[in-house]
Amino acid sequence: MSFSGNVVLVTGAASGIGRETAKHFAKHGAALAIVDKDELNLAETECRDKGAIDVLQIRADFRNQPQVESVVDKVVAKYNRLDILINNAAEWRLGHLQTSSVEDFDLLFTVNVKAMFILTQKAIPHLVASKGNIVNVSSLAGLYPLDGILLYSMTKAAVDQFTKLVAREYAPKGVRVNCVHPSFTRTNITRYLLACNYRRLKYMMGWVSNELHVLFRSTRAGFSYVDYLVNWLYVRFTSTTTLEQLFRRNYLVFRSMIRVKLHRLTLTELIVNIDLASTGLLGEDLEKFQESMVDAHPIGRLGTTEEISKAILFLASDDSSWTTGSNLVVDGGRALTMK
User: Fold this and answer.
1) What's the CATH code of the domain at 76?
2) What does pTM read for this prediction?
3) Tens digit of pLDDT for each residue in 270-315?
4) 192 part of the active site
5) Choosing from 79, 144, 152, 228, which is the catalytic residue?
6) Residues 88 and 176 in one domain
7) In which domain, by residue range, is 273 found?
């Protein structure tokens, strides 16, 4: 497998699957354009160390349409061509129908769907000229109804249909379009857990100033501010929590309280730590949660970003030259357990 002479555009390349994919293209001789809203210096260094012919950094926030529209122009201005587009950038949010906001809907569809549409639309004339190809990074959530990630799943289902329609339209013009469907990797499990806490943390930051007067009253009544904050967070964010359940979970909260004493955390840090403690995801608990996910995968372990990136490279390579409109599931067999 060689990508020597090819220009490859990878979005979401600062970390995770995108960064690993960029490194693998670099190893096989590609010239790269790496795109992210976050810092890309480390990713560029790693790509150059792996042997990339050249690396172009593009900082772009995919919530900003003009920034998205400028990406392909910058790539072509530098390299005068484009051979492969990897649409990887995406946002997560946790939520069901009644707990998902219109703001989250707009964010996820803007980043996960609209930006992909714009990039592909801008890139397609150059891909037709080079007889290139596109690999879209979807998710198992695009194929199966996974609880708790309604909006994210909707966007990935859109990615899947987009892949098939564009593949059908551009196959006669020599452009292949495929899609890879990962299950959890260690990298995106961490991202998932952060997404789980996003809305609660957002609300807490907005409400805490309104609750401080109650906080002070509780302190005068003989409760510590940690005692009050713990109970307040549980009442606010666990609507089904009974008093019995509250006490049953206190060992996690006590662990958080000890860390507050040891590390002299700020109020904001305290809130974040207690909130994470309420879901059992501090420190070793995160590792335990990750290990619990192993049971959902018949192969018996979580995937790695390297394994996902190799699947992406296969679809982008001449080894899959007779493959278009395909959904390549890379999930450790998890789909076999879905009902």
Assistant:
1) 3.40.50.720
2) 0.76
3) 444 544 444 444 455 555 656 667 788 899 888 999 999 999 999 9
4) no
5) 152
6) yes
7) 191-293
